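Re: your question about Cytochrome b5 heme-binding domain-containing protein

S., sorry for the slow reply, the queue was backed up all week. Below is exactly what I fed in.
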Amino acid sequence: MFTFCHDDDSQRRLAFSASLIAVLPVIYLVYRKVFATNQGPSRNSPAGSSNSTAASLAAQGQAPNAQKRETKSIMQPAKTDLAPPKDDPFTLEQLKEFNGSDPTKPIYVSIKGTVFDVSHKNDVYGAGKSYNVFAGTDGSRGLGMSSLKLEDAVPDYSVLDEKDMKTLNDWHDFFKKRYNIVGRVTDLPLTVVPPNL
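Result:
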């Protein structure tokens, strides 16, 4: 059998550990509150509390609207200088040539059969980069699923549910406003080919 010995030293250590565990969250919350007030909005509130921000500005002798925070979006704005869309035909096999592995060739991404030139975003779609899985292919299913898995980067998006289909359509709209359309894929799976083609 096991017997546990509780001498004074071990009881003091146990009491210290328990009190430390109880106090640490309080210290963290106080720390967050102090730095959230001094350094802008907290993580829980994207805009911060308007009352605390206004009170903070008033304490500094400024009017609430005097301080303007500059926000930086990670999304690139829509382009206004896009070329007219082209309708050049591409097979899925031909599209593979434009996967970013050859620096002398453009990088193409196809979504729902529309081929976009994403060459100016080589830092994202180029060889070894985060979204290269979609370069040189029609990865519609993966975009709809928000998946970077190679096995999901396929053109057959017929299996997507309503939510994922909305995501895919949002991606398609996003690309139409930012990248030149250079053609269309002619051999999409029959499950996703619109009836008028």
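The chain has two domains: 8-59, 88-185. The CA atoms of residues 65 and 147 lie 41 Å apart.

Happy to talk it through on Thursday.
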